[in-house]
């Protein structure tokens, strides 16, 4: 009798330990049950906060149908294109080849593919202001939007295209301006003989491009946060998969990024929370107001290129057990955090260890076919509750970040729920901490102090 009690007690204790390192998930919660936008019950955290919406969700002004399903195939395809572009951009060999092939007609910025371009904010440009849905991107510097009269070509966008002639505060930047000179990279020089105005071009890794006039105008974030003379691209020649948005809000580390241009007000600090699902709203906040006291910071590392925010990954823990991954697996290629990449991409050895540990905890569930990019999927049909292991990342500075359950799985259908990670092809390709893993976290970019921070429950 005593032996039985002990055995039962041992099993109970083990079960409790197991449960402490797992998430209990209602399968119905994995898929939004409503086609309507779940508006927040309270106002934004601060006066400098913008609503963040998923481009294909019911909260988006771009969504053509509030009942339309999300095109996961398109998202994953574009995401892989962005990752390939980032890897190419951060490869010195490829950068040199690209720069040699550039035309000297324009000062050309080498941009990362927009990829899936998941998340949007609404920004007012001009006087009177013209509200535009811009994809925000920590992997890009220059903010740009399509402009009338689209002298060459413009892609289709949902909102009316910005007309600079209707804004009393609009002005082109002179070709002789130091700001124009700052666009020049890698020793390239723009040909100013054809125009007194500064022309710019951004060529993306997938062949997409945006070019036009470098300009200044008034930017309105909120009724109290208005900025005169913000440099941005007024694009009249655009081509590519920009998926209906009006342009891009650049949040990178470069001098022309929006945080850099507003540093006298916001001190080069911004934060965001990406919503748990497309039918919910997150926020993008500029300045230090509203930053949680629970934020844990990791230093910004010296990532290749001046735009990206580098971070140092030091380990991964699955189900309470730290994976046996040598530190050099992460330190050799380095890592960046990126708002525009969907799926976190890890060095091959790290991903294999993560996948193996995750699958070992998921043996009770039926495997499902995998879509492109993802390779570990499950069929939850007929189940009400599932248990998935916790996953946390260790960054330099003794910063451990546990992912929200919504940051572990990529939900396609109830019969195809996948591990939201992928492995890089090459050991020396930079790791990318993507936006799925950032869901519901408050992610803080403190450029002034050279650090990135994380806190749980960032959208609440």
UniProtKB/TrEMBL annotation:
- Is-annotated flag, keyword Translocase? no
**So where's the catalytic machinery, residue-wise?**
137, 338
Q: Which domain of life is it from?
A: Eukaryota
* A Pfam family the protein falls into: TAXi_N
Keyword Oxidoreductase assigned? no
Residue span(s) of domain Peptidase A1: 119-455
**SUPFAM superfamilies, per the entry:** Acid proteases (SSF50630)
Give UniProt keywords alphabetically. Aspartyl protease, Disulfide bond, Hydrolase, Protease, Signal
PROSITE patterns attached to this UniProt entry: PEPTIDASE_A1
Q: Name a single GO biological process.
A: proteolysis
Give the family this protein belongs to, as stated in its UniProt record: Belongs to the peptidase A1 family.
Write down the PANTHER family for this protein, in alphabetical order: ASPARTYL PROTEASES (PTHR13683), PEPTIDASE A1 DOMAIN-CONTAINING PROTEIN (PTHR13683:SF813)
Q: What is this protein called?
A: Peptidase A1 domain-containing protein
Q: What is the lineage of its organism?
A: Eukaryota, Viridiplantae, Streptophyta, Embryophyta, Tracheophyta
